[in-house]
Automatic annotation (TrEMBL):
Residues in the signal sequence: none
Organism: Massilia suwonensis
PANTHER family in UniProt: POLYNUCLEOTIDYL TRANSFERASE, RIBONUCLEASE H-LIKE SUPERFAMILY PROTEIN (PTHR33317:SF4)
Stated name of the protein: Putative pre-16S rRNA nuclease
Superkingdom classification of source: Bacteria
Lineage: Bacteria, Pseudomonadati, Pseudomonadota, Betaproteobacteria, Burkholderiales
Enzyme Commission (EC) number: 3.1.-.-
Function per UniProt: Could be a nuclease involved in processing of the 5'-end of pre-16S rRNA.
Length: 130
């Protein structure tokens, strides 16, 4: 069975979203939500969930390079819990250290969807043999 999976790079100003499936195990950037209010964010996410019908959601969990938690770690976890509560889908957290750092970007380029694709690809790679 092939399952669609949506990946999220959570940020205060933007949320990058990627999609992929369990057959190919390949993630690709999908879109960026630029709204900062929760109602608009979750309305947009709800529309994407209705369109793609994912089996699960993956959220990047930011940490310091040494693995220590910081303010955004807790915010990303809260976002993951909200996704689970609102959409009743399993949500997994993936360590996203360096996800944005490995993306070549031009000044001013919005890379959030690409970062979400790296997070989702990490999830697929980690679960390839499971």
């Amino acid at each position: 069975m092939v399952d669609i999976v949506l990946g999220f790079d959570f940020g205060i100003k933007r949320i990058g979203i990627a999609m992929g499936n369990t057959l190919t195990g390949q993630a690709q950037p999908l879109t960026v939500i630029k709204a900062i209010d929760n109602a608009t964010r979750f309305s947009t996410i709800g529309k994407l969930i209705d369109e793609w019908r994912p089996a699960r959601l993956v959220v990047g969990e930011p940490r310091h390079p040494d693995g220590a938690e910081h303010d955004m770690t807790l915010r990303a976890r809260r976002f993951a819990n909200q996704l689970n509560g609102r959409f009743n889908l399993p949500v997994e957290l993936v360590d996203e250290r360096y996800s944005s750092a490995v993306i070549p970007a031009k000044r001013g380029e919005i890379i959030d969807a690409k970062a979400a694709a790296i997070i989702l690809q990490q999830y697929f790679d980690d679960h390839a043999n499971n």
